[in-house]
Inverse folding.
């Protein structure tokens, strides 16, 4: 997946969000060695210092940890990953609902809209 960074918010925050999503979605497995700062910086076309700052934030969050000579690794704390996953899901639902309310949809209309959406797309999503 390509790195689509938006100038509307800090780059390091977008990187944190992207890697956090990759962790909670299972792209990176618990205990797996994380790609190097230089590797990801080159892939994302950002300064390595920016990527380093993002990794420092991910460490602060507990999603990655450093081994002195071996690099960084994804946390093995599956409960933390699941909590983070639920938090991201709640954030996305809140944004969706806010957008629907801004369009003038009420609760029942939103639920009906979602049911119709799932019926139309059930064969694609499983």
């Amino acid at each position: 997946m390509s790195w689509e960074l938006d100038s509307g918010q800090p780059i390091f925050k977008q990187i944190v969000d992207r890697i956090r999503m990759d962790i909670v979605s299972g792209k990176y497995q618990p205990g797996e060695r994380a790609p190097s700062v230089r590797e990801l910086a080159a892939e994302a076309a950002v300064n390595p210092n920016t990527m380093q700052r993002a990794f420092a934030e991910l460490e602060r969050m507990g999603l990655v940890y450093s081994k002195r000579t071996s690099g960084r690794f994804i946390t093995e704390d599956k409960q933390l990953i699941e909590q983070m996953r639920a938090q991201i899901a709640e954030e996305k639902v809140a944004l969706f609902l806010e957008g629907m309310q801004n369009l003038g949809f009420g609760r029942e209309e939103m639920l009906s809209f979602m049911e119709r959406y799932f019926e139309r797309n059930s064969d694609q999503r499983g």
About this structure: The mean pLDDT is 92. The longest helix spans residues 78-102.
